[in-house]
Amino acid sequence: MTGYTCVCDQLYTGQNCSEVDYCASTPCVHGRCVNGITGYTCVCDPLYNGQICSDVDYCSTTPCVHGKCVNGKTGYTCVCDQLYTGQNCSEAEYCASTPCVHGRCVNGMTGYTCVCDQLYTGQTARN
Prior knowledge:
By secondary structure, the chain is mostly beta strands. Helix content is 0%, strand content 33%.
């Protein structure tokens, strides 16, 4: 007889059953478990994150067009870049720079319009 085979207890693995199988308890909820020397690491499926892949990653689809996505418990929030607004930071906020000196700025699809105060005219209500 030239070899042998060990039948390992539940939490052990390897030829001599000397390695701990940290993945034996299947700790990764939505992902693949990778056994390490002193513990395990989860490689999460798409749309999931967290130590055991149990948190939904709402930001994985990059919903924020012009901004940073912040993952939450039940959804996401976009922190928009300057000059953008809307739930997904997809709307340009032309009035953010307050271009109307003496009037009210009205945001449009491709620019802004100033509704000038009395006695003022022009694109930025200065005159």
